[in-house]
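step 3/5: co-fold with citrulline
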Amino acid sequence: MFTNAIVRTPGKNFNQGITTAKLEKPDYFTTLRQHEAYCKVIENCGLNITILPPDPDYPDCPFVEDTAVITKNFVIITRPGDKKRQGEEEKIEEVLRPFRKIEKIKSPGTVDGGDILQAYNHFFIGLSCRTNTEGAKQLGIIFSRYGYTFSTISVINMLHLKSGVSYLGKNILILHEDLCSSKEFKSFIKIPVLKKEGYAANSLMINNRLLLPEGFPDTRKKLKELGFPVYELEMSEFRKMDGGLSCLSLRF
Ligand code: CIR
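step 4/5: write tokens
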């Protein structure tokens, strides 16, 4: 069960962040409205939410997930893979310090939290355009020291590992249909997401509620049939900046 969440409000220059999506620029007021709705749902899941103000130097700062990996006993403060985002993690470290022992990724290692997927006591580390082998090596050393296991997996055709796969608890993964045959995931029960609904693979389980981006009927139907309590959220503006549901918060 999670009891806390950290989020960061989008700033006026949110639309100047990094993106590969060939979509229009996000609208500031719609972004704020969607972010507020996101925060409300998190609170309704029973979490104490810390809402940090934006930092004009970091238009991507609402995507707080990339700055830390949080476990029961420690936090790893990352070193984001895109230079423009390096430094975002400092504020997050300050906020998390009272809660957990702090570990850190050091140069030349780079890690984005969006590449780190936890299932039980195992961490899948995505090797992506943001998380490099040195970052993965440092993560592995830290995870092993605390008794966790880990493995690496190449991230192809998407930004982060968790852009394509999310852990829903009870040994269940929701994932892009292309990833279903990956031997890494062979011991899991899999809910495949159609290629055309790929964005929905980044879903978020918080204390028995499942947050799903709005507008993916096939995925919603599958999840409802399986009995998941699905809460849909409008995510259009964050999608334009390559961000998904998990990216917008740190839960612990
Ligand atoms: C970036 O490119 O870094 C941001 N525009 C999007 C980050 C999304 N984060 C995530 O998937 N964990």
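step 5/5: annotate
Residues 17-19, 60, 63, 65-66, 82, 85, 114, 159-160, 163, 241-244, 247 surround citrulline (CB under 6 Å).
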